[in-house]
Amino acid sequence: MGMDATAPELDIKPLWTRVSQHLRREFGPAAYKSWVQPMVVTVQADGAVSLGLPTRFMRDWVLTHYADRIRDIWLAADPLQRPIGFDVAAPDAAGAAAPAGSDAIATPDLDAAEPTTGAPAPAAGAGRTGPRLVPAAARGEPDPTPAREVVGAPLDPRYTFDTFVTGKPNEFAYAAAKRVAESERVSFNPLFLYGGVGLGKTHLMHAIAHHIRTSDPNRNVAYLSAEKFMYSFIRALRMHDTISFKEQFRSVDVLMIDDVQFISGKDSTQEEFFHTFNALVDQGRQIVLSADKSPNDLEEIGNRLRSRLAMGLVADLHPTTYELRLGILASKAEQLGVEVPPKVLEFIAHKIVSNGREVEGALTRLVAHAQLVGRPITLDTTREVLHDLLRAHDRRITIEEIQKKVAEHYNIRIADMSSARRSRAVARPRQVAMYLSKQLTQRSLPEIGRKFGGRDHTTVMHAVKKIEELCGTDAGFAEDVDLLRRMLET
Ligand SMILES: Nc1ncnc2c1ncn2[C@@H]1O[C@H](COP(=O)(O)OP(=O)(O)OP(=O)(O)O)[C@@H](O)[C@H]1O
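^ Those are the sequences you sent over. The predicted structure of the assembly is below.
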């Protein structure tokens, strides 16, 4: 996704416009509007470029989620290769974040000129493994919906109690979720569901919401991701409309927030969440939350909020067992309406030992392959179609091994896999290592990010996309990556 090869542009304004267009295409209109458009660009005396954001919170968010990509795109476009930094610039009287007295350039409002056809915003949970059948919005991820409509976030129709397979690892969480969904009175407040990636938290949350909406359509159920809650809150702050933001959340009967770990460390959102939470509890409304960790293990959550989160019922989803995986596979095969030989289901459940999402991804791939090539599903075709997944499980390649091999191959220091250095000579091999980690291990994007110096999952996602793109356009590069993969797999 390189920049167009037009005449070099030295003037910062048209250059920034081009970069902005690229960013909007890549991040999608919602993320562009929330995070890029508020930026004001200034060139410093030493030639460096500063991107100013109106608040520290926004600057920090952009730094962790978008800075790497913005830098890459900027450097690909700027013939002078000026370094860019991210700063806080107090808003001026016109509402733009321009430092007084400088030649500040505002970021264009591309929505005024272009229809909103951009790709969806990179978001929590994006980059899940396996074919993605659920639209982003259905998972409560950020989309261009205005804050006021958050309360009606759509649910995935497949995620009901009926389709949730229970077993030892999840029977407690399931029973608690059912109790909350079926009681007319508030049961445990909040119900806090937690567990590792792909173990069915979102599925259970949607099931609760479906059940309540069907059994009592008068009850107002708000289901959204914590990231979306945050987006809406920041947007309301920007629009000076926090009152209706508060009203909207405080008028719900059941508030359900998925992936609350996203709120940790975001002080102002945490504070707002805490107030909303208290107001709802005081009014006797039900709250259901999910996270990847227990309240006690959520880092950077204030003590007040932590104890509030833990005061209801905390139920965890444990890693899957063979029996549970087999049950999930059988249920998904039935939903897909395909006959899969029991031997094949057993084989997958035995070989793919991670989570519900992984086994589902494997099955979907298998079924899609069988339908496309018109061949029956057998053990042999399964081995063939899933060879990469199976190999990753057999060999258990570690991220450390990948980092070492890639660093050797490109002749850089292993330490640079985790360092903050951003020069291309280091950044590209790091992206290759992230890409191979995604391909060859069962690690989630956040887990991979952590192994690369605590980077965010969106950085890993961008790396994966970038390397896929480069492999598609540059045969030499693709060969290189393939060689590395083969070296690691043998
Ligand atoms: N017990 C189960 N029964 C049926 N399907 C399941 C079960 N556990 C997981 N799945 C399926 O696995 C996939 C991933 O589950 P889900 O999105 O709910 O995981 P999650 O815990 O929310 O993960 P994340 O932390 O990544 O958001 C979904 O398609 C879901 O239907």
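The chain has 20 helices and nine strands. Residues 143 and 161 are 26 Å apart (CA to CA).

Shout if you want it in another format.
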